[in-house]
């Protein structure tokens, strides 16, 4: 039996990381075993952790700056590594995987950084190929009015909802209430699927 993949997406500041950690706790509390990953990754000793550090502190590595396309390609490499080594094996064992970010972020932030669409599509084609036929059981798109999100980023997320909701369940979550109420809402959806 194939496992379940629940993705948490949204712009920076939407509260994804906090919410997903609480969802994991809630699932563990009812003996629902799940594993949490984030893209590009922060797990020590992984390609994703190195790329995360390079992205946020390039000078630490003697890198003056990265082009927008090279940064997105690095993110795709980190995703592919985690998908191949960790996520797909766990899903094939029937496990539940919670994922903080998806390829959507690479697309959204790549466009916002001015990466030409043809280049971005080619870079993401590798990630899509690695995912094979695996689709999220549900993707929770988080938003928060207090997060100042540029209109271009908000627009690209709206376009992705329209494009992707035909392939898998996309649930918009307004992170405007207490953490407990938001987690209750998400937990009920996860349990029902």
N-C termini distance: 14 Å
| Radius of gyration, in angstroms, nearest whole number | 16 Å
Instruction: Tell how many strands the DSSP assignment holds.
Output: 5
Strands ordered across the widest β-sheet: 2-3-1-4-5
Mean pLDDT, nearest integer? 93
What is the helix fraction of residues, given as a range?
Answer: 40-55%
Shape: globular
Query: What class do helices, strands and sheet pairing give?
Result: alpha/beta
> Main sheet, how many strands, which sense, barrel?
5 strands, parallel
Number of helices: 7
Order of helices and strands: EHEHHEHHEHEH
Low-pLDDT windows of residues: none
Strand residue content: 5-15%
Care to describe what's here?
- This protein has 193 residues and is an alpha/beta fold.
- It contains seven helices and five strands; from the N terminus they run βαβααβααβαβα.
- It has a five-stranded parallel β-sheet, with helices on both faces.
- Strand 4 (138-143), helix 6 (151-164) and strand 5 (169-174) form a beta-alpha-beta unit.
- Helix 2 (47-56) runs antiparallel to helix 3 (68-92), helix 3 (68-92) packs parallel to helix 5 and helix 4 (103-112) runs antiparallel to helix 5 (117-131).
- It is globular.
- The chain starts with a strand and ends with a helix.
- The mean pLDDT is 93.
């Amino acid at each position: 039996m194939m496992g379940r993949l629940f993705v948490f997406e949204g712009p920076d500041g939407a509260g994804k990381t906090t919410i997903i950690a609480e969802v994991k706790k809630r699932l563990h509390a009812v003996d629902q075993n799940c594993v949490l990953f984030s893209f590009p990754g922060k797990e020590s000793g992984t390609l994703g952790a190195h790329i995360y550090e390079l992205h946020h502190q390039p000078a630490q590595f003697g890198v003056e700056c990265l082009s927008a396309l090279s940064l997105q390609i690095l993110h795709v490499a980190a995703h592919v590594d985690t998908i191949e080594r960790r996520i797909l094996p766990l899903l094939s064992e029937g496990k539940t995987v919670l994922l903080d970010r998806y390829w959507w972020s690479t697309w959204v932030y790549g466009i916002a950084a001015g990466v030409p669409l043809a280049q971005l599509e080619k870079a993401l084609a590798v990630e899509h190929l690695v995912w094979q036929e695996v689709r999220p059981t549900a993707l929770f798109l988080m938003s928060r009015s207090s997060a100042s999100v540029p209109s271009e980023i908000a627009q690209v997320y709206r376009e992705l909802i329209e494009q992707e909701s035909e392939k898998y369940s996309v649930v918009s979550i307004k992170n405007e209430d207490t953490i407990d109420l938001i987690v209750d809402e998400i937990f009920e959806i996860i349990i029902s699927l």
